[in-house]
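Milestone 3.1: sequence recovery, worked example.
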């Protein structure tokens, strides 16, 4: 079961132990189940948990929407604000750069709780969205303000991407945790998808107008972009006001034994994580493909432009790939809550599908070599399947991280892996910033990273320390 990873004292719950029960055997890779698991031990759950989940999910949605504002409308933004290809790549690059203080937000969540962390995060988002709306006529100053706003929004990334498992453990019962983690984590991706839809539909593409260089056309495009910026600022401000009014750190009574159990300190948690080879395996299995895919999605319009895909079509492809991933991810998480102990099997299925879909897309783009048909249908299908398989794996990975390294706090374990994911995304976007004339190499990164992740998960030995604690308490 992997319980040697933590001591009996560290696993000792703060709740009074129930009567002694037979030791269960959750399903693992080495063999089948040894019998039906007994019902999970549960504390008290509150209806307000759904309101807390809604507010946090909306915060993640808004952060993803603001981060992905510019990629889907990069052609229009170049005309309206004079952005170069380097500027567009840097606007996306501010997302992974914002993860530089990730360890501070981990510490803040561990020491001060969810409320303080969420309020600080949402205030950074309000400032960032507001900076992008400052009306100055000088384009150079305006570009600097937009870059500053994107950086502040990027600083909110560590919380909205790391805190989902912590929130689900704190507020939800064991048979709802994976579902809550999926909703809280995937709404950030849904915000990115909304940007693919909102941007191209509200902002007209320059190549769809007869006189591209006319002053009236440029001003019209700029006005539409500013309308999007003002709308996003209003939405972020509303979410911040709601969180300020009500967002408690924890419920009055914990929902499970694991939620009430003592955890390792901040320093000891990092020592445990860095010395656990199994954790490092699944951390790389998550960080490499998700980091590559996030960077690829952020510049999807740039990647599809050379094969004559319009800004609107690229937006729809990005939108449906993420929406499909969110729907399937929540369904998979609910399935994981129902069966318990099958996280590795689910990940193997998802990563196998991602490897096949990414290979199909990459080969399709190489029409001069493979002679595969390059049609709208094949592009839509391959991209959407890739998004479905990779995005839906996020909450499953998060739950597996927490189970593997328990009693390390959820915010710390997931913070480390999302930091690594953003490092990989940042490296790719760094090269893209200085080498943005050819994108075929970026497409080849997708199947390679998915295949590597699949091999790592195949070699991984799963364990369920937190689940064991909720099923029966060792005394």
């Amino acid at each position: 079961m992997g319980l040697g990873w933590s001591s009996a004292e560290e696993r000792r719950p703060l709740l009074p132990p129930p009567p002694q029960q037979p030791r269960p055997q959750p399903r693992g890779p080495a063999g089948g189940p040894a019998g039906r698991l007994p019902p999970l031990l549960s504390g008290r759950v509150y209806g307000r948990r759904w309101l807390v989940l809604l507010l946090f999910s909306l915060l993640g949605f808004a952060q993803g929407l603001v981060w992905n504002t510019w990629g889907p409308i990069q052609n229009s933004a170049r005309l309206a604000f004079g952005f170069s290809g380097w500027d567009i790549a840097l606007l996306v690059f501010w997302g992974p750069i914002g993860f530089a203080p990730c360890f501070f937000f981990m510490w803040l969540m561990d020491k001060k709780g969810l409320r303080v962390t969420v309020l600080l995060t949402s205030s950074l988002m309000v400032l960032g969205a507001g900076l992008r709306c400052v009306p100055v006529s000088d384009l150079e100053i305006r570009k600097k303000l937009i870059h500053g706003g994107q950086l502040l929004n990027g600083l909110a990334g560590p919380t909205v991407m790391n805190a989902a498992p912590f929130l689900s453990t704190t507020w939800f019962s064991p048979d709802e945790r994976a579902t809550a983690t999926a909703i809280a984590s995937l709404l950030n991706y849904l915000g990115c998808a909304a940007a693919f839809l909102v941007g191209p539909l509200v902002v007209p593409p320059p190549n769809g107008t007869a006189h591209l260089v006319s002053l009236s056309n440029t001003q019209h495009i700029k006005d539409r972009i500013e309308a999007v910026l003002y709308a996003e600022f209003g939405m972020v401000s509303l979410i911040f006001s709601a969180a300020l009014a009500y967002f408690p750190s924890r419920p009055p009574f914990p929902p499970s034994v694991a939620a009430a159990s003592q955890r390792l300190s901040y320093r000891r948690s990092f020592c445990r994580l860095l010395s656990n080879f199994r954790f490092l395996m699944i951390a790389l299995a998550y960080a490499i493909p998700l980091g590559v895919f996030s960077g690829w999605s952020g510049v999807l319009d740039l990647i599809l432009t050379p094969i004559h895909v319009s800004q609107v079509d690229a937006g729809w492809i990005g939108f449906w790939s993420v929406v499909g991933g969110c729907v399937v991810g929540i369904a998979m998480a609910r399935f994981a809550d129902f069966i318990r102990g099958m996280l590795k099997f689910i990940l193997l299925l998802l990563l196998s599908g991602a490897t096949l879909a990414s290979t199909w897309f990459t080969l399709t783009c190489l029409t001069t070599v493979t002679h595969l048909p390059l049609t709208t249908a094949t592009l839509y299908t391959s991209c959407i399947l890739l998004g479905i398989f990779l995005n839906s794996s996020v909450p499953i990975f998060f739950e597996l991280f927490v189970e593997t390294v328990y009693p390390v706090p959820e915010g710390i374990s997931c913070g480390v892996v999302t930091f690594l994911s953003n490092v990989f995304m940042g490296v790719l976007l760094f090269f893209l910033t200085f080498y943005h004339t050819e994108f075929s190499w970026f497409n080849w990164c997708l199947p390679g990273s998915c295949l590597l992740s699949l091999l790592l998960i195949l070699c991984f030995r799963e364990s369920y320390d937190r689940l064991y604690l909720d099923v029966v308490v060792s005394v």
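The chain has 22 helices and no strands. Residues 123 and 240 are 7 Å apart (CA to CA).
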